[in-house]
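[#protein-structures] MJ: dropping Branched-chain-amino-acid aminotransferase here for a structure pass
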Amino acid sequence: MKNDATIDIDIKRALTSKLDSIDFENLKFGHIFTDHMMTCDYENGSWQTPKIMPYGPISLDPSAKVFHYGQAVFEGMKAFKDDQDQIWMFRPKDNFNRINISAKRMAIPEFPENFFFQALDTLLKMEKDWIKKGFGNSLYIRPFVIATEPGVSASPGTNYKFMIICSPAKSYYNGEVRVKFSENYSRAADGGVGYAKAAGNYGAQFYPTNLAKEEGYQQIIWTDANTHSFLEEAGTMNIFFRINDTLITTPTNDRILDGITRKSLITLAEENDIKVEVRKVPVQEILDAAKDGTLKEIFGTGTAAVINPISGFGYKGEKHELPVLTDSYATFFKDKLMKIQYNLSEDKHGWRYLVK
Ligand code: COI
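AK: finished. structure tokens for Branched-chain-amino-acid aminotransferase:
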């Protein structure tokens, strides 16, 4: 699908901006959206001219397939502003590739690369004042695709909508994050859709997560569906364990999201001489390490959460607290990664993307 051809984009500007009414210091993640959104329809076998229009509700037939069969996939990306007012994104090509991998698994037609980047660049330039300078400020970008064809026959839609909406963001989690290791519930199974950013993967986590919340946890670390004896991912984050000075994370497969922050961290660890083992992580190994004091850290990685330390975990009624470290890997990698994202350090790997 590589195609650099310039495309037309229909642009209709908002008459007024909400910008002045936003309290950028007190943002709750994902609640405020910018003035414009991108929308592109798939009809008669092809993607039509992308439109950028004022942000607002869309109208869909109640029988649209997305409502009945969950044919929907999404991505999460961020844009950052440096001190020279330049706007940067982090590895957006990887998000583009991944939304098409997710789309394919959900029988959704792939979106063309030139549509994606030209529409995204145009939208971000229009919303540039929504991207605030300063470490920790970002614009969270949510591309998504839904099946819009009316009709409740259980088959893939013929019509779709690809949209991009944007939300100014600070941190995803406020305060400490405690996790529960899943004992019965699963997020994904072999041969399933766990590796895709399919909307249903997230919705399916809400009920078990609510139960975990009642016990005082914010998130679940999912275990493998067959035996519940290997730790997999946190659902909104991939997960890393530090035993002594070695990092351990589970390999990607058809159950695990191929996280962009995850793989960037593995690269950064290797070039900073921190040992990373990408292998299965038995629950028992982590319990043993917590008991003998060799478990130093657990942290999650993701676009929204960046790198989020876990302060404790629970399993089969037992609670374990993690030590508070002054030299944590979570802090070390978060700083390294964010300096690249905010154009404050060298970008050896070509991860930054300048919005032009
Ligand atoms: C992201 O990190 O962008 C995610 O997709 C997690 C999200 C469900 C908030």
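MJ: nice. The chain has two domains: 10-170, 178-341.
AK: one more thing. The first strand starts at residue 10 and ends at 11.
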